[in-house]
Amino acid sequence: MILDVERFVRAEEPYWEELNQAVVKFERDPNFRMDLAGLERFHYLYQRAATSLARLKDNSGDPEVQAWLEALIARAYGEIHRRPSRTGRFSFWRWLSAGFPQAFRRHMAAFALSLAVTIAGSALGSVAIAVSPEAKATIMPFPHLLGKPRDRVAQEEKEQGSKKDLLANHKGSFSAELMTHNIRVSVMMLAMGMTWGVGVVSLLFYNGVILGAVACDYVRDGQTQFLMAWLMPHGVIEIPATLLAGQAGLVLASALVGWRSRQTRRRRLAEARADIASLAGGIAVMLVWAGIIEAFISQYHQPVLPYWLKIAFGSVELAMLIAYFAFAGRKGDGNTQRG
Amino acid sequence: MATLSAVEIQTPEGVTFSLPLAGPVSRFLALTIDGTVTTAAVIAITTAASALGPVLGDWAAASVVLLYFLVVTGYGILLEWFWNGRTLGKRAVGLRVADASGLRLTFSQVLIRNLLRAVDSLPLFYLVGGMVCVLNSRLQRLGDMAAGTIVVRTRLLKLPAMPRGQEGRQNSMKSYVALSARLRQKVQPEMARVALDVLRRRDELEPGARLKLFGEMAGWFRGLVEFPEEATLYLTDEQYVWNVVEIVFGGARRE
Fold first, then answer.
1. ipTM of the assembly?
2. Cβ of residue B65 closer than 8 Å to a chain A Cβ
3. Is A32 helix (H, G, I), strand (E, B) or coil?
4. Out of A68, A194, A280, closest to residue B142 by CB
């Protein structure tokens, strides 16, 4: 049937405009929802517009009208076929209490690998310092760690005993610098998943080397208690956050590589996305907390804060963290559909 | 399916629509605009913090650090999420982020594509991201590949009006039904679209160019089908082209 384009466009235009208005509502508010009647009408309008486009194309219709209609259908298509969210509107509390720990548990293998690489790096760092202490400057390029641990501890305790708060009037900015720096490093670790995991493993290993070197240095110099009191309050959160960043990077790498998977790369990445995003959010929350603790608690030593108190605080944090990841959101663990 | 400049998506309803891809140059331009905006925001924050420093002390410095981080990291995430794939730079250049399958963007897609700027921007000025983009059939940087997104050129959102100015005018050629049918048969769709486009933009043409263009088009159409003299007498070349377009797009008249 040969089409009178102008008459056809005039007849269909009201329906197209109605569809356009409906699409605009969806685009303006990501959480916009329609009732059943509205959805049925929306679907009808979309199908009518699709039919109109097919007719215009078959009848060599006005190309600009076709282009406009094509763009409208593309926008409506996205809303019609949008992925359903099982949890509805995002709830921070629901995500923190369930979504984040569930995402962590779904990828335990990646976490185990992240942990193993870090431990391997720590072992190497410890051995390096034990065998060749002069390698400290190469392994730990941080000026405040290059001296003898006992000298540093003595200096710190002396300063703390003089009741002079060296961090007075810049704890807030120090805390902000710590958390933002650590989040940037973690984001880089995650992003390195796109190097097929090579970058992630390298960063995890290097972090492990530094940790192992510092630990070995202080333990060999008889400053184990100071080391634990200094690192534990913030370290029991910060180090796991780094491990989680490695985990997220390895999940991304695994989706990219697809070892032993029959799915396409696009499908694998699509399935991993929600969990990677969840892990990224959780890492940020952990590092904010760690940054606050490091600036306001970790930098204070005996006699201001007794070592046993700081170690006990760190131990409680670690126990709570383990319990959180082990038990939070357990009820929903069988749910494999992620929003 | 991706061609050199568009991703084509076939719907279950049987129609195909295309999402025209944005090239590296326009994306870099949008990025430059966004960079300028975020830099301006950071300068404003720093200036405000300096002014409030004597009152707020260290908290002013802390605010600068945190707000700088939030602006640099959160700008793309928040705007692309709430503005349906657009930032200020993308809006200015006429681009937006879209799901590569034509579906609606999810927050995890927006978050991941922005977090992976960390590796796309290496070593400087998005060199890694740019190279990956150029080598990728969908012009995706690493962040887009991980997030399953593409950056597309946005199209006009207003329904174009049919050419006006000839209402009430009689088309003397239309009454020749057989010749009109032959004309519709012989005129290629592309040529018909060109003629319609020229008519729509005729007022934008210089008078001399307008005359010449319609003269050439009318001559070409006359070469396809010859109408009797009485049907085309006193018709200008522009009116002749109007008649042809009306016949081609107007459908068959029922006698």
1. 0.86
2. yes
3. coil
4. A194
